[in-house]
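Quick one, T. Sequence first:
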Amino acid sequence: MTRVYLVRHADVENPRRVLYGHLPGFPLSERGRAQAVEVGKRLRDRGVTRILHSPLERAVETARLIVEQLPEPVPLISEPALLEAEFGRYLQGVPFWQIPVRRPLWVVHKARRGLLPGDEAIDRLGGRVVEVVHRVAEEHPDEVSLLVSHADPLQAAWLLMDGRPRTERELYRSRSTGRACWRSTWRAPGSSRSTTSRRRRRRPRRRTAASRSRPVRHRLTVVVEPRRFPPGFLWGCATAAHQVEGSNHNCDWWEFEQRGGVLTGDSADPACDQYRRFREDFALLGAGSTTRRTACRSSGLASSRHRASSTARRSSTTGRC
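Structure tokens:
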């Protein structure tokens, strides 16, 4: 079976938190190098025979670290079609939080990709990645290849192959689905569908003379692999999603409750009562736990004089909002 794995480059060293786009000088961080090494170890027994990568530095480094973990060296091939989205050239060099102000055309880009010069529509953005997948699958049947690209091109390619609407919302919806690979299966001439396709069978279209002369393409199906945690992985949990100790009378929410602001009449005054029941809570969490961490917030250490003055200030401003 022909397999083509799609991999995003690993974490990037970016202390200023800027959008790096096509800029040079953004190698992998220490965490990113560890991620790439781990991916290489997971692919060690998959029979990878070649790696195509984006020409940008972070993708080249990711591909190099992956190939170093494989049992035998495989060729590294630079592929321009796997480059970052072209609109990144307009956004690059700007901190993320400043983009809406310093790059106002970003709003148009998010509303509908492809309207601005130099901006790629989702069909074009993902289409160039899908074209590489088809080409590699046709030129190297029954082999395993790996493509290293960037987030937006890969997400757009996934969206196209999944047949979902070409919208910005759908483009980012699949980011939480975990790791995935593309499995390519050959569709024989004259067959109505691939044997591995799970889609509903449709009425075959009438083929013209022009369509008969076109080469038969691959049909790709998404294979989502389950996420596996390494042996000895330590799980953690938190006991506080809000103020758990209760009796927090020096806050606006407590005053809001006293004025009947909660429709059901409930009060957060006792909360979880962890101040008195912390031993019971720790006992419930103690099964198999190896570490406990306790945090003390500075706001809970205010002196009684400060609390009294704060309460007086709030009382004096009540009704003037």
